[in-house]
Amino acid sequence: MEEQKLAERLRKHSRSALEQAIRRYTPYVSTVVWRLLSSGGTAPREDVEEVVSDVFLALWTHAGELEPGRDLRPWLGAVARNKAADRLRRQPPVPLPLSDTDRAPGPGPQEAVEQREWAERLWRAVEAMEEPDHTLFLRHYWYGDKLRDVARDLGLNLSTAKSRLHRGRKALRETLTKGGNDL
Q1: What 3-state class would DSSP assign to 155?
Q2: CATH 1.10.1740.10 for domain 2-90
Q3: How far apart are CA 50 and CA 33, in angstroms?
Q4: Gap between the Cα atoms of 136 and 165, Å rounded
Q5: Could you give the 3-state DSSP secondary structure of residue 143?
Q6: What's the pLDDT at 139?
Q7: Is this model's pTM higher than 0.85 or not?
Q8: Omega prior to 109 cis, within 30 of 0
Q9: What is the CATH number of domain 110-178?
Q10: 56 CB neighbour count, 10 Å cutoff
Q11: N or C: which end of the chain has fewer CB within 10 A?
Q12: What are the start and end residues of every segment in region (Disordered) (predicted)?
C-alpha cells in the first residue's frame, strides 16, 4: 500500500516522493544494472552510477505514465535492464589481442582453387537462367535489392517472385550437386 501511495505522489511530480524512491530503490536498481554491465567481470562504478541516474531520471520524466495500483519495483527493474542494455550497445567492443599464431589460416592453395571453380560454376548456372529469374536472382542476391522492389520492377507480384526464387534455388542446388559440390 505504501508503494502505491509513493507511485501516486510520483505521478503528481512530488520531489520528496522521488527522493524517497531513490533512497528505497537505489540498491535494487544498482544490483540489476551491475549484473548486466559486469557480465561475469566487473563494471566501472561510474558506469553503474550513470545508468542508475538515468533510470531515476526516466522515473521522473515518465512519472505521469505510471499505472495506478502498480508497484514501482517491476517498472524500475525493466527500465534498469533496458538502460543497461543500451549502455552495453553503445560501448565499443573490446579488442582481443591476437598474435600471428592465433590467426585462422586462410584457405590453402587447393581449397582456393576449389572455391574459385565452385564460384565459376555457380556464376555460369545463374547466367544460364532465363529471364526474369536471372535478373531476379542477380538483383536480390548479388546486389541486395529488396525483393518487393525487384518484383515491382519486373512486373511480378511478390508471391510469384518468392516462388521463382525458391524454384531457382532448387534448380541451382541440383545443378551444382551434379558436379559434386553442394550449395
Answers
A1: coil
A2: yes
A3: 10
A4: 7
A5: coil
A6: 86
A7: no
A8: no
A9: 1.10.10.10
A10: 19
A11: N
A12: 84-112
Percent of the chain predicted with pLDDT > 90: 38
Count Cβ atoms below 10 Å from residue 154 Cβ, excluding itself: 16
**pLDDT above 70: residue 37:** yes
- Nearest Cα residue to 60 out of 23, 25, 22, 3: 22
Reading the block at residue 28, the C-alpha cell is 535494487
Instruction: Give 67's contacts (C-beta < 8 A, 6+ positions apart).
Output: none
Host H or E run for residue 156: none
Residue 28: Cβ-neighbour burial (10 angstroms; 0-12, 13-18, 19+): middle
- The residue with cell 517491476 is 74
Looking at residue 183, its pLDDT comes to 47
CB 37 within 8 A of CB 88: yes
Give me the residue spans of the domains in the chain.
2-90, 110-178
